């Protein structure tokens, strides 16, 4: 494999697995490695990643550490929430939506450094490998992709640790033993899957969760909050304008404190098998409820129903890794157009796991009290309903007459 | 209008409004009136309706009082839940799903009594008139439909009360004043709308709710429950087999006690305006979560996603009153076919408004631990993923190459 | 009805029916009438309409005669063809697509003249009344709409002729007798329906057709033609750049001469019944084939399939009169975005009713000879297909294992 | 590879390519080979395949030659036509629909012979490998699949011929040179692709076609034909009841003689690239027009539009090889349910490439002359249309008022 690539950009977390990959790439390809470490709000220090990379012989100019939190929320999370995307009815796509940004930034670094390859640390059974690689190929069709987990023979924990020791890669104590599950985190969510969670009949342990208290431990008194939207995006909380990442951070705090956003599900992976995942998405779980509420006031029925019918497809595209596909972009164009009128304020009650809409208002509201009132009115002629019903019924009457 | 109809079957609740309608029909059409009162689990005594009807001169053989609870849940609620139907992402269609059954039974009584007309008490601004009448026409195309609210001049509370007094229709004290909202109830839900709720920015008062305690007043300790499904239908709770209506009754008790199932929304009516509705659906809110969970284990991905994509359309059909339409039946055929494998058990945690899935198991499970495990395995070749990704990426690579 | 409206804008063809309407409006409402006559390419002189209007007492400044052909093709026909719209699989929507433009222009004239009402000559059983009036209401919600055919008692030919004679409205000889069918025409098509065509088992008479020779009478030698597209729109024929209306005119000539574009169908009207229609759409029948062919080369698969799945909905919206609806505009936004790359040239063979694609080329082509060739190649690794197939098969294998 | 499989069932045409595969399998795996040759109406003698197989050492009991024509049309072609399936708007899926049957029969032979593997002769770039293999895996999840074209090093014509000569496999003269294109044939269609057709700007040569005369050479006089349908399936032609395969054979003759059914297109393969294909589907091209026509009379609008919206998805599933998928079966269940009423007779005019509907009638017709007539009528109240339009317009009026 030596000579196959000359410079590879690795998505590098600084953790044990991607450090092993870093060394393995150096060994196998005898090539220059560029490390890319992103702050997507996963809640970890990034400077240790720099130190580790330096220790492993990466040149300073080949170490990229970027704070992508604002871009992540503004250009990926928010567009997705404009679509009310839920995969299989419940999953908020917290992992899926981060991958396209990482792929995009890796390809930008490829361009900046003159690299010819990219590498990632996703395994060969999951969705993430697909999401990364579809992104790479869509953005740079001639890129060389290296997925070590599909190539090497280090397919067990023991072999990995042996490799690390042999190559003097530091192993923190908690990595010695088998982790009871694996996680992925960013500003939108944290996921847990595998090992201890593999039996879908077994409830997760309480001490696994890191981003939310349990509903039981949440305050006994509800928190009320108002979220303001402009053109489909949340822009302020309780009157305070906030940048996208700051706003989501604040919603995470509010949700986490009130026991909001835990989810336990069995999902269908793109690669063909089912898996069990547990997620915490405190802020996102508030946001989707609020967004639907402001839409309920400001979207025309035709717009809303069209969005609802396309949503499962849109969510599937993101889950499967097709963020950069022409059809995802096409649907997004439509969603964004429709979102132009989605502005106003939603009032929510947060209480021990519940997110309840208790009010919504908007200058663009299509709700008209005078049309809906039970009182006599002058704007709506009730007798119109007869013709409306009769013509809607006509085809069914004809079918019954003909078919019996 | 006299002579226009000779015998009319009225959907008669025994309440003030439909009693006024009863008298008005007698007056206007000088016709025989057949009253039909159904127990759909609304939680009211039906015998008073019989007495009232007799008092108003209805012949005993023209008084129909039916307990339709089992039919309601078995043939209407359960088929709808097999589809995971949610209108506009959130509404469980509690009112919508009862109307087709009432229409069906009214038409059966038309056939039994030789009547030539039906009447209902729905107003001219709402969805229910449509749902009733589409049902009537679909089942008996030549039926004469009378919708008094669209015909008479009793369009205000004062006029109604005057009419009642003039015709010696008893008015219970609480009906004297304006009700602060109107309600509709059955075994699946109770709705509140109008008047005090017409401002969508104002939170409903706590004392309005009748089927559930607030999350705040629910027990501080979670209730765990296991629901067993066969072919898409819930059939047992905690090991006890229950008939459809008994099962939903039990879920209502469980949900209501744990603060589950309240919903406050702005919805798009079929007749064209938005309205604000508040709903309590304690059992249904548990059931839909449980049903999705057992599907997550037993449905193939292709089946599940197809159902998800058709669901908004299906829910819209029911909301708009097209239960008896050929296309609703066609979609149902598909859903029922797919539901053949949806059997197994779901374990839920109910706690202060939250319904959380904590386990699911099934003899028909498509979840395979050996395929999903992080460990080395012999059933799935990780290298297959490379080809999978490359061919999925190919069209996007070609697009990028051609379009830049 | 006198006093109900003060000035009404009538869609006026100059023919007998709309002349009767004109007089009837003057009689009934004692109001000022503004006539609007449009050249949409229907192939009739418009000046006689002016003379007739003057004769009937319309003030010169109240007579609007507009050549809308370019706007019609550019802003209505072409956007619809970008969507490949076919109603019920076959109908090119020639009548449907003209109505929104007429409604738009009528409302513009309402604004210009300070009128408070509009009137049209569509009957109460058809789709056109819906298309006109949905347009009026969508563009000017407070407009007063007058649909004489639904209001008056002139519901038979005899009564109409009596009215005309009584009011000295000139009746051309060919209007004396019953027309054997009714027609609607514009630059895109001509339709025939009713009377002699009402039995769907009976073939139309050859001499009814006006825009095309029969395939039998078309030349024995094929005509080859090249159509050039830019961003989804046809812009040139055989190298000659043409404006939208000129281009469609030329395609009509080519199609008509070669026996192309006749269609005989039974369709489902929005108002609930089926009707039989016969259409001639010579140019449009060429255009849709050519457009699909250039798309086949330039659209990504994801884009093309998304368009195909939304097309029936889009066509239904136009057929039903919802051109001006928010959801039609939303879908259009998506279609137009996707059409940015739909440029190139299509070569067609026109022969006795057949439109056959015989070549297509494009600078934006996504077709790559090197990828598709049977020969050995270096760009596509055939072994990738194994993994692709295996992962696509996985869920079906698991389903078979679990279900037997 | 020796020892990897013990008995393999090969889809064997008797032609050069699959004869080479036969020998290669014997060489490589040293295993027993079972040959399976099907008559799907491709128009070739099958007995030569038996002789060749015997010559190559296949045991008589390992040679399966089956006439599958009736099963093919009844259980595959007809169900697909009930859906009006067209891939990418135009392609009748003639190749796609044969693959699932071949896969099914191969797996049956696997079961009958105790084989442990299957092999096919499809290349690594096309759709057919996917269609075969998805079928194998869906029907027998543990089957071993051998796709020689993806495995061997005989990737050019020269190498193949060398191998054949070396192994004394007879090469017919016309196979010596390069074929100008490749073909696939069955009772539904014949396809041509590759080589001479690879430039999509170049028109196919006339002498390539084998199943139809050109429109130019077709009779100068039209042929009229009546097709009778029962429950969505064609059952008789001109009054003569015919079995499925006999009926399609007759339609092929009618279509071929009248220059019907040629198609030249660029399509999107499932494996990711575009390819150019030319097809002849004479009978199928008649059948789809006739089927839509009988549906136009007998399907309710809701049914018809639901089918139209799902059709692109259904066609894509078949094109991509997912015939045996749970979701294709689910959609089929719905289509078959809806087809219960699709019975009646369609009259067609066939003339030089044109298939024109000129009449349709049915006992189940939903077309009602009395509802559609222009004359005054008593069944439809034209004033109902006003209410119908007003309520349909309401949301658009509200949107315009709020948004301006």
The tally of strands of chain A reads 14
Classification by helices and strands of chain A: alpha/beta
Chain-averaged pLDDT of chain A: 95
Q: What name does CATH use for the topology of the largest domain in chain A?
A: Argininosuccinate synthetase, chain A, domain 2
**Count of DSSP helices of chain A?**
14
Strand content of chain A: 15-25%
How many domains make up the coordinates of chain A? 3
The CATH architecture of the largest domain in chain A can be given as: Alpha-Beta Complex
* CATH superfamily annotation of the largest domain in chain A: Argininosuccinate synthetase, chain A, domain 2
CATH class of the largest domain in chain A: Alpha Beta
Radius of gyration of chain A: 25 Å
The gross shape of chain A turns out to be elongated
Order of helices and strands of chain A: EHEHEHHEHEHHHEEEEEHEEHHHEEHH
Largest pleated sheet of chain A: 5 strands, parallel
Report the end-to-end length of chain A measured between terminal Cα atoms: 73 Å
Pair with the biggest interface:
A-B, 102 and 102 residues
Question: Which stretches of chain A are low in confidence, meaning pLDDT under 50 for 5 or more residues running?
Answer: none
Biggest sheet of chain A: strands side by side, in what order? 3-2-1-4-5
Helical residues, percent of chain A: 40-55%
Describe how the helices and strands are arranged.
4 copies of one chain form a homotetramer.
Chain A: E1 7-11, H1 16-29, E2 32-39, H2 47-55, E3 63-67, H3 69-82, H4 99-113, E4 117-119, H5 128-139, E5 144-146, H6 148-151, H7 157-166, H8 173-176, E6 182-185, E7 190-193, E8 223-230, E9 233-237, E10 240-241, H9 244-257, E11 262-268, E12 274-280, H10 282-298, H11 301-320, H12 326-338, E13 344-351, E14 354-361, H13 369-372, H14 384-403
Parallel strand pairs in A: 1-2, 1-4, 2-3, 4-5
Antiparallel strand pairs in A: 6-7, 7-12, 8-9, 8-13, 9-10, 11-12, 13-14
